[in-house]
Amino acid sequence: GPQGPAGGGGGAPQQKKDEKTQLFEVEVPRGVQPGQPFALLAGGVRVLVTCPTNANPGQRIRFKLPLALTQKPKATNEAAAIKLSYDKDGWQRTIRVSDMKFQWVRVDDKGDIDTRTRFHIEKSAYVRKLEFRPGDDPRIRTGILRLVPASDAVVDSRIKSADNRDLVTYSDIANAQVKAFEEKAQWFQDTCAQLCVEWNEGHMRMNVRRQFLLGDSVDAVMSLSRKDLRKLWRFEFIGEMGIDAGGLAREWFQLVTEEIFDPDMGLWQSSAVNQMCMEINPASEYCCEDHLVYYRFLGRVMGKALFDRQLVAGHMVQHLYKHILGWPVTFADLEMVDEEYFNNLKQLQTMNKNGDDISMLCLDFTTTQEVMGTKSEIELVPGGADMEVNNDNFPEYLEACLKYRMLDRVKPQMNELLLGFFDVIPEPLLTIFDFQELELLMCGLPEIDMADWKEHTEYSGEYDEIGPDHQSCQWFWEIVTEFDQEMKARLLQFVTGTSGVPSRGFGVLQGNDGNIRKFTVHGVQTGVCLYPRAHTCFNRIDLPMYETREECQEKLKLAVTMVATGFDIE
């Protein structure tokens, strides 16, 4: 941290080097008070420095930074370099010199830190803060979740191994942050592989009944310790033949998350703004007994999926990915949650700006929540029912509305989801991604790129020599290209066990052993099988050499749409 005042002078920071750290001298900017943080560029890296209590503006102070920090590489693409800024003067993640932790700061277009404490509709942001507490059961941590001003939330920049070695340091994260998405994802998986418990140190066999899939899975996963969650899992559906060479694991992640995200279960509901995305049901406690256990379970499953390069079935609303990452949410995010509510608050903001008397509207610090057809009044702050909204406290009213909608109304559920997720994934690992990248990693590419699919397909059996030029393969791709998105997804589910594809495309499609197993079209004689046959553990479809395109199309469609989700041993 800062080492106190140095001699006078001015200009850019001066540097003196030793073996592992670099010493900087900088002049305390005007307006900075003793004990107040300020941001500056040191060796090309934006850092946060606290002014010593015995220093004043104009004096020079010294501080040290690790050499690895100041030797951060250039971004490999422009998007990576600016992705942590929302606007020209937006929120940025900086490294705090005092303890080498990540902290969000809002930097204006002059490079100064915005230290405002009162809510501003355009400039204020909030980050979820999760404080871990030991639970009564050592396998199940508890935690306290809050939405705090973005600058109050910090994240470690290092990860320790099981034997307390530094597995990841700030310089590793800084190097990964500026990589292209595919390289970032690979670094993430390589790091997870180092955290994975070796097979000979123990592994988990997950035996579940297909007809009681969710119940059996919850019992199994919730009985595990955090170490067990980082072991290798092998799946067996009781009473079925099938070797888990990857397909069973993929199917389990797909089926379990499909069931838990199903709105009929009452834990999740479709977003009113985007029907493709799911949001937490605020009334889940009335729909599902032990609802919080299911959120903890889902958090663990989502974390394990990310850890093992698997996919989950549900796309969540955007701000939930931000909560997982610890990214700032702003008033603008409210539009993606409830457009009507957002517009109503914007109208109130316009009235306040124009000087209209808001107290005439007879509002208080409450909101209405409807559960199972019954409306009830919820206080946005303690004693909110007795607090009138007026022009003076209107910023605090907006802040309370934002906090309630973005977190507080589903805080118990989100708390459990995050606790489960971080039982598997160390939080510092996530600091290399933005919320869009996280969704891609968890759900796969939402659109199927036919050119990428064809390019990364292999051919075997009767098609080994001629490959894509074989007449049957040409018909196959013509038919698949004509399929709508649902049928393409069904074909993928038929062959690979999931309707999604890896976030980095078909080139990294994997088998159970973690090795690349590309989508494969395997040629067989029509006497071997009448319909196309799938071997999901190996991402392979056995495609008979049909005599006509029409027969190929008919049999392929039937196989894809009529297949029950299950496995036969090869």
From TrEMBL:
Q: Which GO terms describe its molecular function?
A: ubiquitin protein ligase activity
Q: What is its EC number?
A: 2.3.2.26
Look up the record and name the pathway of this protein. Protein modification; protein ubiquitination
* Residue ranges occupied by any HECT domain in the UniProt entry: 225-570
- The source's superkingdom equals Eukaryota
Q: What GO terms fall under cellular component here?
A: cytoplasm
Enzyme active site: C537
- Region of interest: Disordered: 1-20
Q: Which reaction does it catalyse?
A: S-ubiquitinyl-[E2 ubiquitin-conjugating enzyme]-L-cysteine + [acceptor protein]-L-lysine = [E2 ubiquitin-conjugating enzyme]-L-cysteine + N(6)-ubiquitinyl-[acceptor protein]-L-lysine
Q: Name one GO biological process term.
A: protein ubiquitination
UniProt keyword annotation of Cytoplasm present: no
List the biased-composition ranges (Gly residues).
1-12
Which UniProt key words apply to this protein? Transferase, Ubl conjugation pathway
What is the recorded name of this protein? HECT-type E3 ubiquitin transferase
